[in-house]
Each structure stands twice: as structure tokens, then as C-alpha cells.
Amino acid sequence: xxxxxxxxxxxxxxxxxxxxxxxxxxxxxxxxxxxxxxxxxxxxxxxxxxxxxxxxxxxxxxxxxxxxxxxxxxxxxxxxxxxxxxxxxxxxxxxxxxxxxxxxxxxxxxxxxxxxxxxxxxxxxxxxxxxxxxxxxxxxxxxxxxxxxxxxxxxxxxxxxxxxxxxxxxxxxxxxxxxxxxxxxxxxxxxxxxxxxxxxxxxxxxxxxxxxxxxxxxxxxxxxxxxxxxxxxxxxxx
Length: 238
Known about the structure:
By secondary structure, the chain is of the alpha+beta class. It has 10 helices and 9 strands.
């Protein structure tokens, strides 16, 4: 989370470049949206028992359990050459990279406003964004596999009866790449196809592999230490 924000800050200052990142989570983690209450959304004692990290994002949206997935972040100016300024249009533009990428796996994926991607009638990707100083930060997840029971052992649910219903509802509404392709899908395979999809969707831009600059690394570590690890940030009430 610190790295995504560091790139966005430095891009505002002209010290970084528009960036597409793919990453996974180690250890496993739950992230909550900027406007949520971490104590209301997550069973923190169970997270601790299972060794699952918790963190507040700077983007909106709901609580997400990060386990078997590819997470991406796309950080770019709100300019016509990159992404449109209108919120819906910008979600559609960035999501086109994912749609084009998953098409290379033989999947038909559709954008469902405001920020979901649907495959075979079920959600396969959720996305969120924030805008600061003319910079868009959008990130989201593409599910490789999904363990709904484990997810709801971490997310807070009022009682067992509601928990059982929610588990069933999620199973009916959410899918994963392994489910729709009926085979094991790896992080590396999906990251590679997503990169190709973004290159196709943003054909007017050139994507080149790059390393973090020392300034990006230093600011990311500072943000991680002073912000994203702090109770003041994670337990704040918006």
C-alpha cells in the first residue's frame, strides 16, 4: 500500500512515471476501504490467530481478503492520453486492460458499473480508485481461486444464520479463474496475460519493465512504517 501511494505522490511531483504494477500478498492480508471501520469489518482476533495482516487502503470499496489472486495497481495522470476524468469512463478504460488480458485465456469478461468485472454471470474482479492532485490510483484483484468459508471466518458477520446465507450468496455471485477455466491457474500466467491486455488497451502508450527508483523505495518504506503499520491510520473513523 505504501508503494502504490509513493508512486502516486512522486508522479504528482514529476519524480515518477505512470506505472502499472502486479503483486500478491505475503503474509495473507485483509484490506478495508478508506471509509470503513476495521473493527466493524474484520474479526481481528481470528486474523491474528491465522497470521493474516490487516490494513486500510487509500481507495474506497469494501473489505477484501487477499489470498489466491493477482492484485494490480494502475497509477497515471487524469489526462486524455491516459485515462478520462469522468469516474465511470476511467473505470471502463482501466478495466479494458483486464478484459483484454483475460480474453487471451479464452474468457469473455464484461464490465459492470461501477467497478466490477463479470465472467459467466459472476464477479471475477473488484476494483477501487482514488484521485489526488490530478493523479488516478486504481487497483483491484483478479481471483485465481476463492475460499469463501475462510473469507467469512475473517469478515465479521452478526450471527451464524446470516453467515451461512452470505456464504451461499457469495458462492452464487463470485467466481475465479480456476473455476471458469476448470484448471489450475498460476499468478505468473495471469500477470503475463494481463500485461499483454494492458498493452493492447493502452496501445497509445509504451509499457516498459522497470525497477523502483531509490526515491520510490524510500518513500514507500516511510509510508509503510509511519502510516500503514500505525493504529492511528488503520483504526481511524472516517
